[in-house]
Design brief:
This protein is an all-alpha fold. The chain is 73% helix and 0% strand. It has 5 helices and no strands.
Length: 102
């Protein structure tokens, strides 16, 4: 998963990180978060504008924040309802897309 500089900067702004010495590590952590959430919830586009894409992006930022702060073990419990909700929404979108093409 390619993380753009703009996406990285948005995360850094949110985290109040002003230096660039950790950029490679942050890109890696963001990429891992995208892959982990896609594995749990389904396909989404972190650069997309659908409601599910925006919600997924939020979860990517939160998971990365937890990872960055060495607290990843608490992420799933603290965001379980959001993860489940996103997964259901993505599944519903997928079903709607398949119905539309039939």
């Amino acid at each position: 998963m390619e993380i753009t500089q703009e996406f990285l900067e948005e995360f850094k702004d949110r985290m109040h990180i002003s230096h660039s010495s950790e950029d490679d590590n942050l890109k890696r952590l963001l990429s891992f978060s995208v892959l982990a959430l896609k594995g749990s919830c389904g396909e989404f586009d972190i650069y997309g504008e659908l409601d599910t894409d925006i919600r997924a992006k939020e979860l990517v930022f939160e998971r990365t924040r937890y990872t960055y702060n060495d607290s990843l073990e608490y992420f799933a419990d603290n965001f379980l309802s959001e993860i489940i909700s996103l997964g259901i929404s993505l599944l519903t979108e997928e079903d709607d897309d398949s119905s539309a093409t039939v």
